[in-house]
């Protein structure tokens, strides 16, 4: 893919990543890890550290041990700027990587590798990418992770990655969701793809619906209830002491009764509630995962909702992520006002 739209405007993150061949020859090729080696070698350098130099251990309470072990190497490779090691985690034959906030997209392994080869040398020496929460298993998962300042803009970026793995353990589809207000609205506007270059297909059909039956039942039931505006029906999927989080609104509400009160008052403002909303893709197993969603009738076109389920299959934690840069200040302050209990 070539992007000449920004000629004369200086080099931006988007132009570096779109310049697929730039800098690729500066990296020496190394042998790729086999899937077995990648899964079996979590690389526990630094004692209990998950990623070297990072004093954060991810919450793996709603993920399988296999997922936690496998993906550990991926983030170490990314933090080391070891492009060949990192790219060994991706399938060469079935490949999709989309940034759902900027519109960047790659449908070929080599295009992604060449694009990143031009960008990684610009990262700060001490840059790190590390997971903070893992949901799901080695079939499909939502990976919550942080990229430190300087990697993708002046501030840290907290991503929610929708990830599907193939039978050999390699990643076949990865779609990132995050709040661009953390990035900076002005910077987001400079880096976002023009409307004509946004992907029209998020390629969920290439991997199919492989989430567990329980996660599909909960995600579909919740989304259907929210689409119809039936908040009492939606609440039947929640545990008594559930936690509800909306990332762009900076809200956290605890207990099913308080969540119901908030959703009843805020339904008209939330982008994932009401007519026009729908499920794009479901991920995860019986304990953790969630769903990507679309919204046709409001200012926010898409997002992701992470779900953590308890032993009875009820939602004990819900985290909604969408691009807050699409929302004006009145919408965000309106959501905060709806959260005030009388």
Summarize the structure.
The protein is an alpha+beta fold and 342 residues long.
Top keywords for this entry?
single chain; 342 residues; alpha+beta; Nuclear Transport Factor 2, Chain: A; 7-stranded mixed β-sheet; 6-stranded mixed β-sheet; 28% helix
Describe this structure in words.
The structure is a single chain. The chain is of the alpha+beta class and 342 residues long. The chain folds into two domains: 13-199, Roll (Nuclear Transport Factor 2, Chain: A); 213-338, Nuclear Transport Factor 2, Chain: A (Roll). The protein is 28% helix and 25% strand. It has helices at 13-18, 35-40, 65-79, 83-87, 109-119, 180-183, 185-191, 213-228, 231-235, 256-266, 329-338, and strands at residues 59-63, 97-99, 105-106, 129-136, 140-147, 157-165, 171-177, 238-246, 251-254, 277-284, 288-295, 302-309, 315-322. The protein has a seven-stranded mixed sheet with strand order 1-4-5-6-7-2-3. It has a six-stranded mixed sheet with strand order 9-8-13-12-11-10, covered by helices on one side. The longest helix is centred in the middle third of the chain and has 16 residues, at 213-228. It starts with 12 loop residues before the first helix and ends with a helix. The model is unreliable at 1-11 and 20-47 (pLDDT under 50).
């Amino acid at each position: 893919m070539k992007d000449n739209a920004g000629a004369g405007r200086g080099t931006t993150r988007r132009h570096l990543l779109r310049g697929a061949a730039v800098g690729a020859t500066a990296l020496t090729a190394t042998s790729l890890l086999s899937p077995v080696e990648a899964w079996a070698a979590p690389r526990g350098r630094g004692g209990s550290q998950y990623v070297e130099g990072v004093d954060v251990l991810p919450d793996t309470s709603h993920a399988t041990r296999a997922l936690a072990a496998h993906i550990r190497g991926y983030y170490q490779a990314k933090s080391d700027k070891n492009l060949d090691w990192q790219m060994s985690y991706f399938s060469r034959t079935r490949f999709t990587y989309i940034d759902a906030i900027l519109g960047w997209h790659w449908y070929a392994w080599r295009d992604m590798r060449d694009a990143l080869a031009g960008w990684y040398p610009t990262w700060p020496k001490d840059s790190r990418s590390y997971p903070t929460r893992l949901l799901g298993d080695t079939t499909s998962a939502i990976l919550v992770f942080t990229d430190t300042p300087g990697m993708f803009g002046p501030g840290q970026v907290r991503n929610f990655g929708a990830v599907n793995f193939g039978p050999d353990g390699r990643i076949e589809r990865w779609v990132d969701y995050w709040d661009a207000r953390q990035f900076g609205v002005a910077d987001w506007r400079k880096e976002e793809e023009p409307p004509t270059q946004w992907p029209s297909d998020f390629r969920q059909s290439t991997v199919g619906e492989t989430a567990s039956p329980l996660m599909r039942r909960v995600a579909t039931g919740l989304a259907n209830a929210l689409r119809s505006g039936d908040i009492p029906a939606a609440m039947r999927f929640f545990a008594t002491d559930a936690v509800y989080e909306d990332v762009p609104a900076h809200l956290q509400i605890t207990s099913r009764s308080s969540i119901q009160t908030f959703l009843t008052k805020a339904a008209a403002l939330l982008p994932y509630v009401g007519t026009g909303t729908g499920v794009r893709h479901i991920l995860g197993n019986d304990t953790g995962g969630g769903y990507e969603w679309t919204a046709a009738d409001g200012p926010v076109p898409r997002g992701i909702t992470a779900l953590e389920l308890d032993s009875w299959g009820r939602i004990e934690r819900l985290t909604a992520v969408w691009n807050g840069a699409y929302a004006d200040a009145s919408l965000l302050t309106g959501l905060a006002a709806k959260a005030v209990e009388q």
